[in-house]
């Protein structure tokens, strides 16, 4: 089963078992719709029922059912909170999860092998694909329609147009 990360427990909040969660989802309010999350402890995955959700600055503050003390949750600082793909947000046409494009083959519009998509940087304006070229160099490609021509999730192929000057940057 596929899991998607929605947040990371950044710290405890108070002494009653609440945690501050740094969201790794586009919409922090998303936590209001979640009934449960999966805590990845590194050795096991625990299903936690969400009892209450509040928001503070850019963080979600979660209270899990049955965890009522700081001592019960403190050991999970820095751990990921996941959801199953079924519980993930519904995607609009043309949208996809970052994990689905990582490790995609990147080819040019001429059909030449360019490299492998290694990471996605989320910036304010547009995302940026981090591509490791066939020569082992790292190239940053802006996710704009002039540069990213096609994303095929099924075959894990991203077709790109290399904008003039993009490869001149060292």
UniProtKB/TrEMBL annotation:
Domain named Ribosome maturation factor RimM PRC barrel is located at 103-162
GO biological process terms, alphabetically, are: ribosomal small subunit biogenesis; rRNA processing
Instruction: Determine the domain of life of the protein's source.
Output: Bacteria
GO terms assigned for molecular function: ribosome binding
Keyword annotations: Chaperone, Cytoplasm, Ribosome biogenesis, rRNA processing
Its signal peptide is none
Q: Name one Pfam family in it.
A: RimM
Instruction: Give the subcellular location.
Output: Cytoplasm
RimM N-terminal domain residues = 6-86
Name a single GO cellular component.
cytoplasm
Biological function: An accessory protein needed during the final step in the assembly of 30S ribosomal subunit, possibly for assembly of the head region. Essential for efficient processing of 16S rRNA. May be needed both before and after RbfA during the maturation of 16S rRNA. It has affinity for free ribosomal 30S subunits but not for 70S ribosomes.
Q: Which family does it belong to?
A: Belongs to the RimM family.
Q: How does it assemble?
A: Binds ribosomal protein uS19.
Entry's free-text remark on domains: The PRC barrel domain binds ribosomal protein uS19.
Recorded hits in HAMAP family, A to Z, give: Ribosome_mat_RimM
Q: Which NCBIfam families match?
A: 16S_RimM
Record protein name field: Ribosome maturation factor RimM
What is the protein's species of origin? Anaeromicropila populeti
Q: Which lineage?
A: Bacteria, Bacillati, Bacillota, Clostridia, Lachnospirales
Q: Gene that codes for this?
A: rimM
């Amino acid at each position: 089963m596929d899991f998607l990360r929605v947040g990371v427990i950044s710290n405890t909040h108070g002494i009653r078992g609440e945690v501050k969660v740094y969201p790794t989802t586009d919409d922090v309010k998303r936590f209001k719709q979640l009934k449960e999350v999966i805590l990845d402890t590194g050795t096991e995955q625990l299903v936690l029922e969400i009892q209450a959700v509040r928001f503070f600055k850019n963080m979600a503050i979660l209270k899990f059912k049955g965890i009522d003390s700081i001592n019960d949750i403190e050991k999970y600082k820095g751990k990921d909170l996941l959801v199953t793909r079924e519980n993930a947000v519904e995607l609009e046409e043309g949208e996809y999860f970052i994990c689905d494009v990582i490790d995609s083959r990147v080819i040019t519009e001429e059909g030449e092998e360019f490299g492998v998509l290694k990471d996605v940087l989320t910036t304010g304006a547009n995302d940026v694909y981090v591509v490791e070229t066939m020569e082992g160099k790292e190239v940053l490609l802006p996710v704009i329609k002039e540069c990213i021509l096609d994303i095929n999730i099924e075959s894990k192929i991203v077709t790109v147009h290399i904008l003039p000057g993009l490869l001149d940057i060292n």
